[in-house]
Design goal:
402 residues, alpha+beta, Thrombin, subunit H, 2 domains, six-stranded antiparallel beta barrel, 8 helices
Length: 402
């Protein structure tokens, strides 16, 4: 998607190559994968893109599930000149049509007038904490540097004959975050958005990659508790299975479970009392809300800084103000959640929790200024981002409440 800026994109390092993760699940997923993108006016990056996976195909048409933000711009408008690229013919762009899209949950269906090579099975249930999962798609680094598709040549169909291959990254489920999100720690990059999160043994799709919340890792050193997220297929099942799609649903309870237990880090006996576990879970949820809003402000500030986008200030500034307001509200909730940790007797974790709140407060102040003076004020001092990473790492390192 957009350089360091597409709204709440998945972002980290390039994933491992398929050769390093030969599993039956990836073999089943691979034929369904395609790159979905559109041209942009920034000459340094001639396309914005993500991943999609095919769920329905006929002799003359195929339908792909992807993320809504893959097919829309920073203002939420459907991108013009949307196209699909199949790995077997990376020089050819097939004109794509958005069948339906939704910002909540972050899902979209697109169609092209050619058949795809394979379809996937969709899970009826969510994975559980510690279950093994994989993601597959077209990370930014691989597409731009190895396939060579981020160049002026892409502006003309068939002008580039590079090699485009999906890559896979594996990890585990960290938390299910309610009904609308799955947190996982597989390495994720720009371009993975819209791709499948699936069972590495069966290939059954559990979710659609949507974003990575800031602060949980640095590029080059992803945290074990990296806060990547996917929309569960359960949350979007009606959206995905509605006509004109004919979708294969997994008949079993979501495929092989990957040997995961039904516990997570909050339920570990070492964490102490039930009030402590509940308070810690509430704190993590509050941080997720704050981090989403912060990512929204930063994304719009970065988007405005791209040459040619200056004329859109009137459209972008109200949206930036909305995100800044959400961020301030979420900060108050985060403070309240830290107080809840203290009240629960979680003495070990209170200090790093309060430290993280103070870092978030500094970033929120900078984001408010950046949103109010779009184009004439930068987002938060880059030093704050380093402090945020350190503060989150400190939170992640705490394994007891007392």
């Amino acid at each position: 998607m957009l350089p360091r800026a597409a709204l709440l994109l998945a972002c980290a390092l390039p994933a491992a190559s398929p050769a390093n993760a030969a599993s039956s699940g990836f073999a089943k997923i691979k034929p369904s994968l395609a790159l979905i993108g559109y041209p942009v006016d920034d000459k340094r990056l001639t396309m914005a893109f993500g991943t999609g996976f095919c769920v329905t195909t006929t002799a003359s048409k195929s339908y792909f599930v992807t993320a809504n933000h893959v097919v829309t711009d920073a203002l939420g408008n459907i991108a013009s000149n949307l196209f699909v690229i199949f790995p077997k013919s990376p020089g050819t762009r097939h004109k794509a049509t958005v069948v339906r899209h939704s910002a909540d949950p972050d899902l979209a269906i697109v169609s092209v007038d050619v058949p795809c090579d394979g379809t996937v099975q969709i899970s009826r249930v969510k994975p559980e904490q510690t279950d093994a999962i994989s993601i597959a798609g077209f990370p930014y680094v691989e597409v731009c540097e190895e396939a060579g598709l981020c160049s002026e040549a892409l502006l003309a169909p068939d002008a580039h004959k590079g090699v485009l291959g999906p890559v896979v990254s594996s990890g585990t489920v960290g938390d299910t975050l309610g009904e609308l999100a799955i947190q996982y720690n597989a390495e994720t990059d720009h371009g993975n958005s819209g791709g499948p999160l699936y069972d590495p043994q069966t290939g059954v799709v559990y979710g659609v990659v949507v974003d990575e919340l800031p602060g949980y890792s640095t590029e080059g050193a992803p945290s074990q508790l990296k806060y990547n997220r996917a929309v569960p297929t359960t949350a979007g099942l009606t959206f995905i299975t509605s006509a004109p799609l004919t979708v294969a649903l997994d008949a079993a309870a979501g495929g092989a479970r990957g040997g995961g237990s039904k516990t997570d880090r909050y339920a570990d006996a070492a964490l102490g009392s039930a009030p402590c576990r509940a308070a810690w879970r509430a704190y993590d949820k509050a941080y997720a809300e704050w981090a989403q809003a912060h990512g929204g402000v930063a994304s719009l500030v970065d988007y405005f800084a791209v040459p040619g986008h200056e004329s859109r200030k009137g459209q972008l500034q109200p949206l930036a103000a909305q995100f800044a307001s959400r961020e301030a509200t979420a900060l108050a909730q985060l403070r309240s959640a830290a107080d809840g940790l203290h009240a629960s007797g979680a003495t070990t974790i209170v200090k790093p929790a309060v430290a993280l709140v103070e870092v978030a407060a500094g970033i929120t102040t900078g984001d408010a200024a950046a949103a109010a003076a779009l184009g004439s004020a930068s987002a938060a001092d880059p030093k704050w981002e380093g402090r945020l990473e350190a503060a989150v790492d400190a939170m992640d390192s705490v394994i007891t409440c007392f």
